[in-house]
Design brief:
There is one protein chain. The chain is mainly beta. Helices cover about 0% and strands about 55% of the residues. It is built from no helices and 11 strands. The protein has strands spanning about 1-5, 10-15, 20-25, 35-40, 45-50, 55-60, 65-70, 75-80, 90-100, 105, 110-115. The strands form 2 sheets. Strands 2, 4, 5, 6, 9, 10 and 11 form a 7-stranded mixed beta sheet that branches. The protein has a 4-stranded antiparallel beta sheet with strand order 1-3-8-7, with no helix packed on it. A hairpin with a 5-residue loop joins strand 5 (about 45-50) and strand 6 (about 55-60). The N and C termini lie far apart (about 40 Å).
């Protein structure tokens, strides 16, 4: 089992920045890729970014060049640095970690970008 605790959401003006964190505990030795997703009311959860155990990163086109995903394996923590935020980035952001057998989700953290 892996437990995830997210932090760092909040209210920010357009053009501003936020950094989300997601700390894992439990069976952390089994974690492979770590992801961020986001969801707005009435819409499906949307993939944002992924970082592999080896540090390879991929991003959704909507955030490429503005968001940066990183991880600290020693702290079992994944981060999402969000710059140049836009009102359309407003959502609940979720981290997800993958093990060989399961996927685990964080509780979500609200990010609101005002225009």
């Amino acid at each position: 089992q892996v437990q995830l605790v997210e932090s760092g959401g909040g209210l920010v003006q357009a053009g501003g920045s936020l950094r989300l964190s997601c700390a894992a505990s439990g069976s952390i030795f089994s974690i492979n890729a770590m992801d961020w997703y986001r969801q707005t009311p009435g819409k499906q959860r949307e993939w944002v970014a992924t970082i592999t155990r080896g540090g390879i990163t991929t991003y959704a086109d909507s955030v490429k060049g503005r968001f940066t995903i990183s991880r600290d394996n020693a702290k079992s923590t994944v981060y999402l640095q969000m710059n140049s935020l836009k009102p359309e980035d407003t959502a609940v952001y979720y981290c997800r970690v993958l093990t060989p057998r399961n996927a685990y989700w964080g509780q979500g953290t609200q990010v609101t970008v005002s225009s």
